Amino acid sequence: MIPVLADILAARQAIGAMAALDTPLVPSPTLTERSGFDVLLKLEIGQHTGAFKLRGAANAASRLPADAPGVTCCSTGNHGRAVAYAAARRGLKAIICMSELVPQAKIDGIRALGAEARIIGRSQDEAQIEATRLVQEEGFAEIPPFDHADIISGQGTIGLELLEQWPDLHTILVPLSGGGLAAGIALAAKAIRPNIRVIGISMQNGAAMHAALEADKPVSVEEVPSLADSLGGGIGTENTLTLQLCRDLLDDVVLVSESEIYRAMQFHYYEDRLVCEGASAVGAAAILAGKVRLDGPTATLITGRNVDMKTFTDIVSGRDVMLGNDVLKGQPYGA
Ligand SMILES: *Cc1c(COP(=O)(O)O)cnc(C)c1O
């Protein structure tokens, strides 16, 4: 079922009771100066678990019976943390299945939240097989990362908040992976203000939704290391909702390079005093690289802060970073 505004309003009630927070919208004076339009940052890094994904996971968990055997999901990290946190809030057991490509900091984070982290295979699709087995053989409830009405509705609560916080908003820049976030925000925002623009932004390498939109069907995309690791993974070969919603509701999808993400992470740190992960910086990357044309007040989503701190300090120090076997050449900020 495709969610509607009423589902997103209901999600807001449900997740408020499960400790998902309304998050601040703060000015970015330097992005404003560079772009010529007011740019504000929606700080989902202040959410419990450090990313917006708690909204969708809490909404899905709120709808399960209290005696469910447990919950599972397949995740590149932030969704897993969110499911772990939401399950603990409901007193449910959680087993989080993830691929070997997930950074250690994210695995540790999930264990610290009291869930089991089960590492399977080299892709999200392989980890998915184990999650499906838990559902079929052990009666677990799966909380999928994006392609589900409850998840889309939960993420969509950001769209409601944004328009309350800033009724003049023209454009929303949304980091795009599986599309639950972009679909939810676009559903909510366009239901209230039909002519608002919602633009999805992904990294150039491994942008699964972008490839699917071009092909008009899910296509398999090689998962490659990226500074925006939270944007990795496929959209699912059986995608039922987010591809269609992104096709119908997104005004554009823009791709940014690894060095553009690198510079945008430096920018958020030095100009906005923010520690955020690569996925959070793609909006600024697109603005700074001139890849989006702004037409008025703009919000960009700072979606998460769960970055490996060694990588982060290398980036803000201008050092090279390794992406798998490739070197991404560093450069001091402002050089
Ligand atoms: C999951 C995630 C996204 C993308 O959300 P989708 O619903 O998969 O498109 C963006 N940023 C961060 C930090 C994430 O964890």
From TrEMBL:
Could you say which cofactors this protein requires? pyridoxal 5'-phosphate
Q: What class of enzyme is it?
A: lyase
User: What is the annotated signal peptide range for this record?
Assistant: none
**SUPFAM superfamilies in UniProt:** Tryptophan synthase beta subunit-like PLP-dependent enzymes (SSF53686)
Keywords noted in UniProt: Lyase, Pyridoxal phosphate
Q: Which GO terms describe its biological process?
A: isoleucine biosynthetic process; L-serine catabolic process; L-threonine catabolic process
Domain Tryptophan synthase beta chain-like PALP spans what residues? 21-304
EC number in record: 4.3.1.19
Q: Per the record's keyword annotation, is Lyase included, yes or no?
A: yes
Q: Which GO terms describe its molecular function?
A: L-serine ammonia-lyase activity; pyridoxal phosphate binding; threonine deaminase activity
User: Its family?
Assistant: Belongs to the serine/threonine dehydratase family.
By its UniProt entry, which PANTHER family does this protein fall under?
L-THREONINE DEHYDRATASE CATABOLIC TDCB, THREONINE DEHYDRATASE, MITOCHONDRIAL-RELATED
Q: What name appears for this protein in its UniProt entry? A: Threonine dehydratase
Give the source lineage, highest ranks first: Bacteria, Pseudomonadati, Pseudomonadota, Alphaproteobacteria, Hyphomicrobiales
